[in-house]
Design a protein that fits this description.
The chain has 461 residues and is mainly alpha-helical. It is built from 18 helices and three strands.
Length: 461
Amino acid sequence: MALDEREGRSKTRELTRKLIRWAVLGIGILVVTAALGSLALHTYGAHRLEKARAEFHARWGHLTQITPPSPVPDHENGARWLLAGGRAIVCTVEDRRFYGQLSNRPAAGWTDRERSRAQWILHEQQNALEILLRSGTVETFYLGTDDVRASYEDLDFSSILMGLRLLMLEARLAWSEGRTSDCLAALDAVGRAADGLMQTPIVMTSTIGSAATRWIARAAADFVSDPCIDVGTVEGISAALPSEDPVHWGNITLAVSVAEIAGEGLRYIDDSHDPSMGWSIPFWISNHYLLEDLFVAEILERWGLQLELGQEPAARWSSSAAHEIWDAPSWPPWLALGGTYTPNLLSVRAREQAASTELQQTKLAIALRLASPDGLGPEACATLSGWGPTALTGEPITCLYDEERGLIVIGIPGAVETLRAHVSVESQAAAFPPIEIPIGRSGPGCGKPALLTGFRNEGGE
């Protein structure tokens, strides 16, 4: 009996040792397999990322070669004046909302109550307005940073927006009151700011620059439609318009942003994400460095697709273009958690194209005005040449003579539908009203002397 017990214990110990050996061997095999798999995945990811970087730089690297303006004293920097003026505005949220909406509507359509309130706001903000107007009297506009990760708070975009809106309110009210010089001064400040904001390679500044371009283009279109406008004032309005193309600088801004990702990888994303958005799982994965290179390569490739698609007018994009590029279901399974990681900037691209298109429409109207200083005739549209397709629709702007109403009508067919297909915007922002210019030179007061021979104020002279 005792012998049997000893033999049983011996067999049990032997079986236990075998199980331990097999467990250790199995764990060892798993560890080695995991290590080899991780090494293979890391190697594959590194190769994929290097290829993505090379392809990006070969295709878009030229856009990232920009030189920021040389630093200048604050009093010679329009950005400093614009920020100071915006910060000097002291009004209620309701007033801000009111003049923000009113500044994009022709003053001729304001009610008496709206006009009185606009006059009161501008009177109350006179000190801020004087500071804002100084931004249009200097050549340089530099926010002092080219950090594409600069946040809304870092650059005080709220003050910039408030300042630009107040300037537009002043421009429209001044025009309606016959203060042409004041109107052009306000337009000039907005035009310079739009140029400077677009040339700052940060997505938010580029977006605000595009918006300001649309505001000033729309106001200028309203002004040049005045049958009594004189050539000098048309020239002043033309000089105040932004000289830069939103689409061109939008290309550069996006390319610079992608180049930052290509150079810094997840450190770029980690520094710029918002922790409140609940992206802890993708960051947990990335911080283990197993999928980092693959993840960054995916982002680079998709931003490259967006850049490529953005070269085409938005009218040619499929309605699901953004979803196909960015939505999580289209990501590889091992990276699906990162689908909410990166922004969809196709909507920004569409806005840039809209700004470029509306600016082109206004410049066409100005060209007609300057070509016929004594007033447009029914044949005015036939004199147009060299106006190519628009950035938004890919189709030319139309110019027609409405014989029944005696108007030259300059329109952008398909613009509204195109923008709404790719951007969630309010009705006012989505509108592309036609420019309607009366034939001839007639109307109350058209025989009065010209109010101003306008020009863009250079260097404060």
